[in-house]
């Protein structure tokens, strides 16, 4: 199987280039991460991140044949040759497939992604019905792999002002939680021309999410909620 | 020595559940705390824990911490320290509530309380009916807990060094631990991080074995650092094989599947666990189920073309339960096996999952070792929690649902003890330059030029023979061979060379440093396993099939360099209740 992989080592390369690799032995059920590990066995200078290998840690987000995804849960059989691998788009490249995600994390931290309570804590758990708990499904599973935000043209243009799909999904995760008491604060913080409203419903985020989440829908819920509150 | 240098009250190495729970305790007490992690915090392996966390909340069935304690002691095959086990089981309910308050989205019962599921080895009333004790957020409990803990830490302004690899502890001539030398992965720059207290929370070492449920980062770095600092490792022969990894691949299929009513069958369609554990069947403890599956396959009752696995049936649970309570494993099966577990059973086989042994600590998280005079003296300034530590609550076999519990209980306990320690030790000690030099020399060794073996080759060899020679069933001959082979690998390691000598994000260098750590641990595992002539928990010796409490009711301590194994007694006396004396373990 043939691969074309983005290479750039700032110590030795003046500019990035695509390097071809070939793997002779491909098992039918191999994932892209398995192939990358074999390529690295041939060429240890190839850098990429990985950890869990089963789609729960979010380390190995990359651009695979033009589309963001996680290498560890992308079957080789689903890919057209040569498989073109590039770093997640729109972020500074540290080396090869490794990008600098500090701005992505910055946007995440900016939305206060933690449960906020004003009232004193009870001795036992907060009560939450199965229906209330269900509101969090499709939101809390986000693994912060950055596939969505780095696929979003709005975030490419305004990464410092637009919060981006991942961070906004997390806002909605807390807004949707009946235990959280900061909904107003969370919504008013987003009330400007950029943080939320730069979303133009391009839908790349939902298209690429490896966990099948839908940040676009979460964003549209936030917008509706804000409209409703402002009337 | 012109390295960047930073100072903190406490340095936490590792950003999984244990490290983050400890850091949170410290940050909330306004101690100046830094967390060093080789991966961005929520990439830590805690994120992959599926089934849940035990606590006697009694939300589903009657329960008491004392029953939980009994199950844990029995599960440990009586090798667990009963004071630590009592402490953990008593703290459990409080800490689950604490996590819920921090935002963990636990699954819920109709009355709004936290949902609890059945898990292996859990009983009511000291060995009676099956208990439902495991608090779960669907089958993504670890993910939910790790993210919430990370979020609480950013709220409390813990200082994070993301993607810094810890090389070695800094230790002065009097034996105080003063922090660590760490490598900034992005730049290749070593740093000195000084701290009055250092906490190791670096997780397990499942990557010792070829097939395992662990993340690729689980290379036992903290345990190996401790060994190099002259600290022994405890009970390393006890490595848990999870009964239900996806056959041939290793991905974990949570015990929660069996907790929800799933069961195992052999090629004859027989529910074989009835023969091995007539009372609790598929919910026997993990060591028992793993051995049963091995035995079925060995005796020719395995499934598939090569007869090398058994089937985990869950179709009868129905689509609703599977979608609601087990969405993660459904996704895993769809992704890796390309079928829907709603329709078809899952091929499973035991796979390396958890290291019960580790850095010896007491129940306050202090690292304890035979040091100056006593057998369990605290190493000044050093703490350890979680899978890298051995406190020991899991003894010879860990019960499912106790590992998430272990990390939050002892993470918090260590945090509290460190706060006290900081009050008594207000100043940093003088930096031990010699120790820093040693760490840098170790790093520099990988800059040797020339040709040699690759890291990849050597690691593959190590993992293969560990699996062959140190698996579920062991005997003297294969273990002797294992000791011989690991020593050979240790020698070959000297001749491994890196072709890539660049500084920036050099993953080859990290692989090499991780392999070095794994080799150190392999020595500990095989030597302890060879020495222990009995069968207990996860350590099953075909040549010594019985548990031998007279000779072997004791903890092993392996020291690097000297290569020998010493022993210390098991703490059989709990804090407030009566001892559970060893008895025959039947399920």
Automatic annotation (TrEMBL), chain A:
A single GO BP: tricarboxylic acid cycle
Ribonucleoprotein found in the keyword field: no
UniProtKB keywords: 2Fe-2S, 3Fe-4S, 4Fe-4S, Electron transport, Iron, Iron-sulfur, Metal-binding, Oxidoreductase, Transport, Tricarboxylic acid cycle
All residue ranges annotated as the 4Fe-4S ferredoxin-type domain in the record: 132-162
Catalytic reaction equation(s): a quinone + succinate = fumarate + a quinol
GO terms assigned for molecular function: 2 iron, 2 sulfur cluster binding; 3 iron, 4 sulfur cluster binding; 4 iron, 4 sulfur cluster binding; electron transfer activity; metal ion binding; succinate dehydrogenase (quinone) activity
Enzyme type, top EC level: oxidoreductase
Pathway the protein takes part in: Carbohydrate metabolism; tricarboxylic acid cycle; fumarate from succinate (bacterial route): step 1/1
Record-listed E.C. numbers: 1.3.5.1
Superkingdom: Bacteria
Cofactor annotation: [3Fe-4S] cluster; [4Fe-4S] cluster; [2Fe-2S] cluster
PROSITE patterns for this protein: 4FE4S_FER_1, 4FE4S_FER_2
Signal sequence residues: none
PANTHER family: SUCCINATE DEHYDROGENASE [UBIQUINONE] IRON-SULFUR SUBUNIT, MITOCHONDRIAL (PTHR11921:SF29), SUCCINATE DEHYDROGENASE IRON-SULFUR PROTEIN (PTHR11921)
Entry's family note: Belongs to the succinate dehydrogenase/fumarate reductase iron-sulfur protein family.
NCBIfam families: dhsB, PRK05950.1
Protein name: Succinate dehydrogenase iron-sulfur subunit
Organism whose genome encodes this protein: Nitrosococcus oceani C-27
Record gene name: sdhB
UniProtKB/TrEMBL annotation, chain B:
Annotated metabolic or biological route of this protein: Carbohydrate metabolism; tricarboxylic acid cycle; fumarate from succinate (bacterial route): step 1/1
UniProt domain FAD-dependent oxidoreductase 2 FAD-binding: residue ranges: 9-404
Residues spanning the signal sequence: none
Cofactor(s) for this UniProt protein: FAD
Cofactor note: Flavinylated by SdhE, about 5% flavinylation occurs in the absence of SdhE.
GO biological process annotation, one example: tricarboxylic acid cycle
Organism superkingdom: Bacteria
Designated name of the protein: Succinate dehydrogenase flavoprotein subunit
Gene: sdhA
């Amino acid at each position: 199987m043939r691969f074309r992989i983005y290479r750039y080592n700032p110590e030795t390369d003046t500019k990035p280039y695509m390097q071809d690799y070939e793997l002779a032995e491909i098992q039918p059920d191999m994932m892209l991460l398995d192939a990358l590990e074999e390529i690295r066995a041939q060429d240890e200078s190839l850098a990429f991140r990985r950890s869990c290998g089963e789609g729960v840690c979010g380390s190995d987000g990359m651009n695979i044949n033009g589309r963001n995804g996680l290498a560890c849960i992308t079957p080789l059989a689903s890919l057209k040759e040569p498989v073109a691998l590039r770093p997640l788009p729109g972020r500074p490249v540290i080396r090869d497939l490794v990008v600098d995600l500090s701005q992505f994390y910055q946007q995440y931290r900016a939305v206060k992604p933690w449960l906020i309570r004003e009232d004193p804590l009870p001795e036992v758990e907060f009560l939450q019905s199965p229906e209330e708990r269900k509101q969090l499904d499709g939101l809390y599973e986000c693994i912060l792999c950055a596939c969505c935000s780095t696929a979003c043209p709005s975030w490419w243009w305004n990464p410092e002002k637009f919060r981006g799909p991942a961070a906004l999904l997390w806002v909605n995760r807390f807004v949707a939680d009946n235990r959280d008491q900061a909904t107003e604060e969370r919504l008013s913080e987003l009330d400007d021309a950029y943080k939320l409203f730069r979303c133009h419903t391009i839908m790349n985020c939902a298209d690429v999410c490896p966990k099948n989440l839908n940040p676009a829908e979460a964003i549209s819920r936030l917008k509706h909620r804000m409209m409703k509150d402002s009337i | 020595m012109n390295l960047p240098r930073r100072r903190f009250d406490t340095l936490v190495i590792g950003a999984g559940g244990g490290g983050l729970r400890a850091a949170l305790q410290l940050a909330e007490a306004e101690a100046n705390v830094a967390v060093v992690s080789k991966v961005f915090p929520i990439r830590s392996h805690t994120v992959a824990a599926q089934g849940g966390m035990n606590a006697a909340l009694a939300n589903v069935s009657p329960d008491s911490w004392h029953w939980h304690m009994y199950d844990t002691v029995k599960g440990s095959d009586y090798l667990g320290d009963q004071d630590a086990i009592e402490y953990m089981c008593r703290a459990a309910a409080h800490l689950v509530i604490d996590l819920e308050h921090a935002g963990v989205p636990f699954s819920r019962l109709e009355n709004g309380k936290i949902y609890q599921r059945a898990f292996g080895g859990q009983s009511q009333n000291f060995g009676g009916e099956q208990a439902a004790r495991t608090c779960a957020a669907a089958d993504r409990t670890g993910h939910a807990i790790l993210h919430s803990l990370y979020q609480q830490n950013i709220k409390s302004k813990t200082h994070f060094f993301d993607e810094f690899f810890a090389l070695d502890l800094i230790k002065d001539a009097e034996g105080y631990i003063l922090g660590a030398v760490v490598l900034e992965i992005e730049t290749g720059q070593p740093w000195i991080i000084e701290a009055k207290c250092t906490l190791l929370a670096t997780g397990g070492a499942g990557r010792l074995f070829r097939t395992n449920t662990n993340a690729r980062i689980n290379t036992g770095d903290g345990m190996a650092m401790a060994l190099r600092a002259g600290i022994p490792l405890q009970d390393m022969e006890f490595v848990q094989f999870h009964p239900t990894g996806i056959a041939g691949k290793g991905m974990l299929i949570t015990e929660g599947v069996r907790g929800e009513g799933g069961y195992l069958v052999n090629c004859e369609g027989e529910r074989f666990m009835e023969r091995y554990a007539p009372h609790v069947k598929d919910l026997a403890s993990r060591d028992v189920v793993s051995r049963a599956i091995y035995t079925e396959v060995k005796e020719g009752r395995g499934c598939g073309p090569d007869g090398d696995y058994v089937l985990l049936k869950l179709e009868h649970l129905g689509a609703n339960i599977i979608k609601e309570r087990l969405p993660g494993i459904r996704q895993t099966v769809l992704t890796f096996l390309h079928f829907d577990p709603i329709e078809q059973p899952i091929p499973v086989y035991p796979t390396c999952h958890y290291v019960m042994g580790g850095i010896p600590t007491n129940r306050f998280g202090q690292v304890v070792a035979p040091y100056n005079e006593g057998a369990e003296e605290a190493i000044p300034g050093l703490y350890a929690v979680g899978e890298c530590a051995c406190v020991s609550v899991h003894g010879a076999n860990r019960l499912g649902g106790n590992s998430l519990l272990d990390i939050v209980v002892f993470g918090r306990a260590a945090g509290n003890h460190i706060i006290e320690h900081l009050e008594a030790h207000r100043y940093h000690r003088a930096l031990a330059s010699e120790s820093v030099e040693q760490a840098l020399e170790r790093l520099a060794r990988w800059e040797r030029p020339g040709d040699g073996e690759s890291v990849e080759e050597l690691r593959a060899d190590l993992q293969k023979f560990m699996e062959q020679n140190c698996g579920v069933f062991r005997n003297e001959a294969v273990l002797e061979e294992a000791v011989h082979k690991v020593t050979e690998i240790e020698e070959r390691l000297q001749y491994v060379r890196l072709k890539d000598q660049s500084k920036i994000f050099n993953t080859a260098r990290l692989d090499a440093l991780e392999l070095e750590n794994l080799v150190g641990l392999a020595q500990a595992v095989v030597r302890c396993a060879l020495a222990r002539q009995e069968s207990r928990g996860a350590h099953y010796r075909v040549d010594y099939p019985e548990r031998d409490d007279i000779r072997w009711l004791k903890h092993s301590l392996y020291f690097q360099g000297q290569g020998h194994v010493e022993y210390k007694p098991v703490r059989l006396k709990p804090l407030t209740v009566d001892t559970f004396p060893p008895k025959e373990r039947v399920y």
